[in-house]
Design a protein that fits this description.
With 310 residues, this protein is an alpha+beta fold. A hairpin with a 2-residue loop joins strand 4 (268-283) and strand 5 (286-292). Strands 1, 2, 3, 4, 5 and 6 form a six-stranded antiparallel sheet that branches. It is built from twelve helices and six strands. 37% of the residues lie in helices and 16% in strands. Helix 4 (59-72) packs across helix 5. The longest helix has 15 residues, at 77-91. It is elongated, with a radius of gyration of 33 Å. It folds into four domains: 1-27, no CATH class; 57-106, no CATH class; 114-159, no CATH class; 184-309, no CATH class. It catalyses: S-ubiquitinyl-[E2 ubiquitin-conjugating enzyme]-L-cysteine + [acceptor protein]-L-lysine = [E2 ubiquitin-conjugating enzyme]-L-cysteine + N(6)-ubiquitinyl-[acceptor protein]-L-lysine. Its cofactor is Mn(2+); Mg(2+). It comes from Struthidea cinerea. It holds the Pfam family zf-RAG1.
Length: 310
């Protein structure tokens, strides 16, 4: 209830109105303003009522909100009520609660996206088990699922593996299979043997070069679009683009050390990979660079072609 006394205008909770009124000692005819209970039960707080009683008490307001929503918001009552609620929270400086509610309304939830969690896991060099431990701890301590479980990360990871994105080359590539399936094969099949003919058995997961390249470019889509925007080249989305690639092959150390225990194994892990160094686009007679890898020697920008145990 708003206090009717001049220069007061304070809003008082219903039950505390009488107490507030008694503080205006100087006022004559105080009784005129006191709240009259017309018999029956005193009004209960709205949130303590049953759903049916809430509906009953708010029916007039609901009708007004519905009329407003139909007139202004295309009938979206939920959006109007949610906005009212957000404004009420922010008016009371409860911004944290308002931010969380807004995130849920926009379908973001208060948790991180699986792809973001995957990026965190890789950039902080956490193993799967270390990440899982952190995920469990955070969930237990906060009571909220901020990080996503491992299986969600694995699903997000599939989008980064060659063979995930459908594509076609124009003109079509000669002598290239259309099958993008990834299989476990002999990693050296099709490669001429080295001079010393060292007998080596390999087992490898090998990707098709064009499938790997398409996947790498798809992964960099946002950077490419940002580069085009920065150079005011929005009209050049169809290219042609010139992509400079650095190929590399590195040994990945002694695998036996990675497992920690058990007998020493003679295997070596080898990775054939490539890094997209830069992408440019021809504009008239000049070439404009729209992407350049800042850390070309970082293993974080190596795109896999073949992962092999020798």
């Amino acid at each position: 209830i708003r206090c009717p006394v001049k220069e007061c205008d304070e809003e008082i909770l219903h039950g505390k109105y009488g107490q507030h009124l008694s503080s205006h000692k100087e006022m004559k005819d105080r009784e005129l303003y006191s709240y009259i209970n017309k018999g029956g039960r005193p009004r209960q707080h709205l949130l303590s009522l049953t759903r049916r009683a809430q509906k009953h008490r708010l029916r007039e307001l609901k009708r007004q909100v519905k009329a407003f929503a139909e007139k202004e918001e295309g009938g979206d009552i939920k959006a109007v009520c949610m906005t009212l609620f957000l404004l009420a929270l922010r008016a009371k400086n409860e911004h944290k609660q308002a931010d969380e509610l807004e995130a849920i309304m926009q379908g973001r939830g208060s948790g991180l996206h699986p792809a973001v969690c995957l990026a965190i896991r890789i950039n902080t060099f956490l193993s799967c088990s270390q990440y899982h431990k952190m995920y469990r701890t955070v969930k237990a301590v906060t009571g909220r699922q901020i990080f996503q479980p491992l299986h969600a990360l694995r699903t997000a990871e599939k989008a980064l593996l060659p063979g995930y994105h459908p594509f076609e080359w124009k003109p079509a590539l000669k002598n290239v299979s259309t099958n993008t399936e990834v299989g476990i094969i002999d990693g050296l099949s099709g490669l001429p043997l080295s001079i010393d003919d060292y007998p080596v058995d390999t087992i490898a997961k090998r990707f098709r070069y064009d499938a790997a390249l398409v996947c790498a470019l798809k992964d960099m889509e946002e950077e490419i679009l940002e580069g085009l925007k920065a150079k005011n080249l929005d009209d050049y989305l169809n290219g042609p683009f010139t992509v400079v690639v650095k190929e590399s092959c590195d040994g990945m150390g002694d695998v036996s050390e990675k497992h920690g225990s058990g007998p020493a194994v003679p295997e070596k892990a080898v990775r054939f990979s490539f890094t997209v160094m830069n992408i440019s686009i021809a504009q008239g007679n000049e070439s404009k660079r729209i992407f350049e890898e800042v850390k070309p020697n970082s293993e974080l920008c190596c795109k896999p072609l073949c992962l092999m145990l020798a």
